[in-house]
Design brief:
By secondary structure, this protein is mainly beta. The chain contains one helix and 49 strands. The chain has seven domains: 2-112, Immunoglobulin-like; 119-186, Immunoglobulin-like (Sandwich); 193-262, Immunoglobulin-like; 270-339, Immunoglobulin-like (Sandwich), CATH 2.60.40; 346-414, Immunoglobulin-like, CATH 2.60.40; 421-489, Immunoglobulin-like (Sandwich); 498-577, Immunoglobulin-like (Sandwich), CATH 2.60.40.3080. The protein is 1% helix and 53% strand. The protein is elongated.
């Protein structure tokens, strides 16, 4: 093997070597090519031209450089090294013939690399499972002095690398000027792939389905773990449902199948429905009964109204009811039942109100429709039949029941007119006048005043009447009547001034437990007399002041007259006693 050497010697004027540099470079970049050694001197005392020999030595091996002087200060030559030359530190020696036969030697001048003997082989551990990073590469390197370095294509710098996915990897080994590249391929097994053939149940609930599994890829042998606990490759005796299997190869690589569906066979489940109709409108007498046949195992029933798991439900109102029946083979039947009710029993009531307040002249009649068959009618006052009479004002109820026992009712009211009321406002005996106010009943009113023997007037107020006893009978447009108590017009020779009359106050009127009379000052000292409807004096006294109080001494109820007399003048005021 030939090397190129360029030797620079720096020699002092006294002929002593101070420093030297030797460059070892292939002249064409290829190991084994010829190398040129050039020795250059810089001191005048050193004449390369007189040099005849150049040699390098590491103390064991010596090699001569064949060449000649190329200038006065430069020596160039070639060196052939055998393939087994030792790498290491070499010394260069130059002999220069002179007058005295002296020579100079260069000690520890340069290092020579021997022939590049590096070589490496790779051992590959494949990835255990498809897609993982469990591969590794180890190197067996020879021809190295122990100072080599490594650079892998994945950036690693160690001799051996691991944790590798499948792929190609290269490494460059460098020691000195020697370079060696090695490429290795990490492989992986094919991925585990599962497929299956499924046989469904022959009939619903038969439990004779099966799954035949096909496995490819990975590394045999395989192990199997099914969701139903089976550990064989193929499984049988299966009911309808979903199954899964996990397969593991000898390297511990595993895969899990998607759900494998075993279908059930044809269902024999049947449901017959019987229902009980609703008897009366609005009640809950309906019922539904399911008769289930052909079921596998137990059945469950779901109802749309939230009823419990049962085949019979009752107490149902009008409406639609859905059911779902499911057996142990997952066979399902869904249906609906509609329960209708008869038309409601209706009652139309016609009423006639009481004409006069307090009478019992009201009546009512009823017409029933929608009843089933024969029906009966009863009234809240105890009457039976289509009508009732002699009713007072008030609230009543009519009931109708058909032959199915469906009962309906309706409430109604019998009204009456406002009762006629008659109020005696004033009795002025001096003028023979009695003024009244009539309310209630139904207008227009008719009036009939009479004394003890005959009728005396048909006006509302009695005027210009002679002293005596009078009664008023009032009749409204419906013929309802009211008759006043006996009213008296007293004999008198004079009368009070109207201004004084207007100042007289009697309260309360009607009278309760006592009567209070307030008079103007001019009438203080007047004689007071309370006269009942029979003309009897039931109390007498004098007005000692403007205010007089009289206690009710169990006076009879009805109209009374309070007579106020002063000298020959008097006035009677009507008083109503409760």
């Amino acid at each position: 093997m030939k090397f190129l050497f360029t030797l620079f010697l720096c020699i002092s004027a006294a002929g002593i070597i101070h420093a030297q540099t030797i460059a070892l470079n292939p002249d064409n970049g290829n190991a084994g090519s010829a190398f040129t050694v050039t020795i250059t001197g810089t001191a005048t005392a050193f004449s390369v031209a007189s040099t005849t020999t150049a040699r390098i030595s590491n103390g064991i091996e010596s090699y001569d450089i064949s060449g000649s002087a190329t200038s006065a200060t430069r020596f160039s030559g070639t060196l052939d090294l055998p393939p087994d030359a030792t790498s290491g530190l070499y010394n260069a020696t130059l002999w220069q013939q002179g007058t005295a036969g002296t020579f100079w030697s260069c000690v520890d001048c340069f290092t020579i690399n021997a022939a590049c003997l590096l070589n490496a082989t790779a051992t590959v551990t494949p990835a255990a499972c498809s897609g993982d990073s469990s591969g590794a590469i180890s190197l067996d390197v020879i021809g190295t002095m122990g100072g080599e370095s490594y650079l892998w294509s994945n950036g690693e710098t160690s001799k051996n690398i691991s944790g590798l996915a499948a792929g190609s990897y290269s490494v460059t080994i460098t020691e000195g000027n020697c370079l060696v590249s090695v490429t290795a391929v990490v492989t992986e097994p094919d991925p585990l792939i599962l497929s299956s053939e499924v046989t469904s149940e022959s009939t619903a609930g038969a439990g004779d389905g099966s799954i035949v599994l096909q496995v490819s890829g990975g590394t045999i042998p395989y192990t199997f773990d099914w969701s139903n606990g089976a550990t064989t490759k193929d499984i049988s005796g299966l009911s309808a449902g979903s199954y899964q299997v996990t397969v593991m190869d000898s390297n511990g690589c595993e895969t899990t199948s998607t759900e494998i569906q075993v279908m059930g066979g044809d269902c024999a489940l049947m449901v017959n429905v019987n229902s009980t109709p609703i008897f009366c409108n609005g009640d809950n007498s309906g019922a539904i009964m399911l008769q289930v046949t052909g079921a596998v195992g137990k059945t469950s029933v779901q109802w749309s109204n939230g009823a419990p798991d049962t085949t019979i439900i009752s107490g149902l109102f009008t409406g639609n009811y859905q059911y779902t029946v499911t057996d142990d083979a997952a066979c399902t039947i869904t249906g609906a039942v509609s329960l209708a009710s008869p038309d409601p029993v209706g009652i139309v009531v016609t009423t006639s109100n009481v004409a006069c307040a307090g009478d019992s002249t009201g009546s009512a009649s009823a017409v029933v429709n929608g009843a089933q068959g024969v029906y009966s009618i009863s009234w809240s006052n105890g009457d039976l039949g289509d009508s009732t009479g002699n009713l007072k004002a008030g609230n009543y109820t009519v009931y109708a029941m058909d032959e199915l026992g469906c009962l309906t009712s309706d409430s109604f009211m019998i009204l009456e007119n406002t009762p006629i009321t008659l109020t005696v406002d004033t009795i002025i005996s001096m003028d023979g006048n009695i003024q009244v106010t009539v309310q209630g009943g139904t207008e227009p009113y008719t009036y009939l005043w009479s004394d003890d023997t005959s009728a005396v007037s048909t006006d509302e107020d009695l005027t210009g009447a002679s002293p005596g006893r009078y009664r008023l009978e009032v009749t409204d447009a419906l013929g309802c009547q009211i008759t006043s108590d006996t009213l008296r017009i007293e004999s008198t020779s004079a009368r009070f001034n109207q201004q004084l009359v207007n100042q007289i106050r009697v309260y309360p009127n009607p009278v309760g437990s006592q009567l209070t009379l307030r008079l103007p000052q001019a009438l203080v000292g007047s004689r007071l007399t309370l006269i009942n409807a029979l003309g009897q004096n039931i109390w007498e006294g004098n007005a000692s002041g403007q205010l007089t109080t009289v206690t009710n001494q169990r006076w009879a109820s009805g109209w009374h007259s309070l007579r106020i007399r002063q000298y020959d003048r008097e006035i009677s005021i009507p008083i109503l006693v409760h």
